[in-house]
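During the no-cost extension, the postdoctoral fellow (Dr. R.K.) reprocessed legacy sequence entries with the updated structure-token encoder. One reprocessed record is reproduced below for audit purposes.
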Amino acid sequence: METKENGSVDAKSSVENGQVSDPAHWAVADVVNYFKATGFEEQANAFKDQEIDGKSLLLMTRNDVLTGLSIKLGPALKIYEYHVKPLQTQHLKSNVS
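Re-encoded structure tokens follow.
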């Protein structure tokens, strides 16, 4: 995985063997790029505005995503259920084994 001067991980390197790299190592720019790449271009800026890096992303609760980012409810629900929660689960599983 390549790290850029600004501390972010090269977007191409954030996927290893078909899986997303461990978000715990992501900088704010990586979190923003991840959500832009998954179709949440407009909402990705909320993560930048709130300075959410990978470690912060892994600590977010459903309520944090729904109310703390000031984004519309529909996209917020999708972001949490289809992205944040699975990334948290993946991180926990990879650290247990």
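The first helix runs from residue 28 to 37. The chain is about 60% helix and 5% strand. The remaining legacy entries will be reprocessed before the final report is submitted.
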